[in-house]
Amino acid sequence: MPNLNPKQLEQAMKKLGVKQVKIDAYEVVIKTREKNLIIRNPDVMKVNMMGQESLQITGDIEEEQNITEDDVNTVAEQAGVSKDKAREVLENNHGDLAAAIMELKK
């Protein structure tokens, strides 16, 4: 909505039955099976529209791979290296077990 200041926008949203509440967060983490999404310096708004609640999140997004102890053990055993070395190479290969094993076997 062009030329609306934030107060006017808030009033227009109220008239439409949309309620927004700012959430004071310093970090948001979304965990998936493959990776974690970490949102730093987030701006989080809880929005209630016609009884349906949702979150709007903006900020600096970083991706972090989920590397389990099972993954580390598998790579260490298959490549014949220490767990520390296996974890390091797994991280460098973004959690890809096959790529990590191949790199260590070179």
Give the overall pLDDT as a whole number.
90
Quick one: CATH superfamily of the largest domain?
Nascent polypeptide-associated complex domain
Ends apart, CA distance between termini: 59 Å
General form: rod-shaped
- Helices and strands, in order, run as HEEEEHHH
CATH architecture of the largest domain: Single Sheet
CATH C-level class of the largest domain is Mainly Beta
CATH topology of the largest domain: Ubiquitin Ligase Nedd4, Chain: W
Low-confidence stretches: none
**Integer tally of domains:** 2
- Fraction of residues in β-strands: 35-45%
Helix content: 25-40%
Summarize the biggest pleated sheet.
4 strands, antiparallel
Number of helices: 4
Number of strands: 4
Which structural class do the helices and strands define?
alpha+beta
Radius of gyration: 22 Å
Give an account of the 3D structure.
With about 110 residues, the chain is an alpha+beta fold. The chain has two domains: about 5-65, Nascent polypeptide-associated complex domain (Ubiquitin Ligase Nedd4, Chain: W); about 70-105. It has four helices and four strands, in the order H-E-E-E-E-H-H-H. The protein has helices spanning about 5-15, 70-80, 85-90, 95-105; strands spanning about 20-25, 25-30, 35-50, 50-65. Strands 1, 2, 3 and 4 form a four-stranded antiparallel beta sheet that branches. Strand 2 (about 25-30) and strand 3 (about 35-50) form a beta hairpin. Helix 2 (about 70-80) packs across helix 3. The longest helix has 11 residues, at about 70-80. The protein is rod-shaped. The termini are far apart. The mean pLDDT is about 90.
